[in-house]
Amino acid sequence: MRTALSIAGTDPSGGAGIQADLKTMTMNGVFAMSAITALVAQNTTGVREIVEMTPDFLGQQIDVVFEDIPPDAVKIGMVASCGLIEKIAERLRFYQARNVVVDPVMVATSGYRLISEEAVDTMKTCLLPLAVVVTPNIPEAEILAGMDIHRQEDIEAAAKRISEAYGCAVLLKGGHNINDANDYLYAGGVGTWFYGTHINNPNTHGTGCTLSSAIAANLAKGFDLPTSIRRSKKYLSGALGAMLDLGKGRGPMQHNFNLTGEYAKEAE
Ligand SMILES: Nc1ncnc2c1ncn2[C@@H]1O[C@H](COP(=O)(O)OP(=O)(O)OP(=O)(O)O)[C@@H](O)[C@H]1O
Ligand SMILES: Cc1ncc(CO)c(N)n1
Q1: Ligand 1 touching residue 199 (CB < 6 A)
Q2: Residue 38: its H or E element
Q3: The sheet that has 31-43: what strands, in order across it?
Q4: Residue 109 CB less than 6 A away from ligand 1
Q5: Global pTM?
Q6: ipTM of the complex in this document
Q7: Which CATH architecture group holds 3-136+203-251?
Q8: Which 8-state DSSP code applies to residue 99?
Q9: Which of 187-226 are b and which e, b meaning 16 or more Cβ less than 10 Å from the residue's Cβ?
């Protein structure tokens, strides 16, 4: 069985972070593992408090995984501070980690900051160059590219700019500001739109975590990047389309929905 590791923060209410990643990776047919960057007291209504892991202990979590069950893909989510980012980059370089997907988590859906100002620069210089793909939403892409995004042309320009600056593919998620579900991939000098059908469900807590984990799981299984993105968007539509309604805020998605035949398919 192929394996994937999530390096991210927690969500005790189960909709985002490590908890969403483990559900998503499991449903996408890989063995899911995790290294925790921070304990986050949060639920569907927002973030209450964060207790960060020390860089040394995060490093030990990564070491025990790689020494025993080297992952076929790694997803990196919330990493709040410079020391943690530097530790992850150093360990992943040491193990020559493959299929690294970076979700540059900066602000929770509720508006709570999940990364310090200084750490954004460290993320740019240390983490993005290790990624095969980075998956910013529009506000994150504005920060990474250093430009405002208002229209479709801005999405295309920002993705190109981030990709050229850090040498990784960029999947810029359009779902946030615009009422559609279209994402733009810029990889190896080529831009491609991935069109999705907008699902009228307000319970979108953890969509970003779920998409990046599904991409990592599909890369681990041997699918190429465009195919992994296509499959992951389909998975997300299924999880959103199941119309789970839990919690008092933006609720979580349902992961144990019925996956159709397409998903049984393995990479050639
Ligand atoms: N209502 C929706 N219907 C269908 N797809 C959606 C919807 N909302 C978001 N998506 C898709 O979900 C994926 C994640 O995008 P989104 O922009 O929501 O991420 P995010 O802002 O990082 O998430 P989070 O709120 O977890 O931080 C993208 O592929 C996007 O197109
Ligand atoms: C731990 C964690 N990672 C990412 C997000 C973004 O949705 C969140 N709310 N919590």
Answers
A1: yes
A2: strand 31-43
A3: 46-52, 31-43, 3-9, 73-76, 100-102, 133-134, 169-173, 183-187, 190-194
A4: yes
A5: 0.97
A6: 0.97
A7: 3-Layer(aba) Sandwich (3.40)
A8: S
A9: beeebeebebeebebebbbbbbbbbbbbbbbbbbbebebe
